Input
Amino acid sequence: QVQLVESGGGLVQAGGSLRLSCAASGSFSRIYTMGWYRQAPGKQREFVADITSAANTNYASSVRGRFTISRDNAKNTVSLQMNTLKPEDAAAYYCSATVQIGRALENYWGQGTQVTVSS
Output
């Protein structure tokens, strides 16, 4: 079993910053890509950013230059620094991780953390 626990969501004014964190725990031998997705009410879940174990990063065009993803492989954590937040960034943010269990690769999700941006 693998658990992903997010923290750091909250209410912030437009133009402000928040930092989300996610910690992975459980029975796995390795974590490959870790990432963040978000889902606003009435919309589909969308990709925000991800990072490989070698620290290669990818960003959605809507957040590139404002958000920074990072990870600590020793602690099995991934973080998302969100700057210059906009009202359209408001959503539930979900952590994702692809882990190796035995010979299989499996993907897991966290429970989500809410980000609210006031205009």
In short: The mean pLDDT is 97. The chain has no helices and eleven strands. The two ends are 40 Å apart (CA to CA).
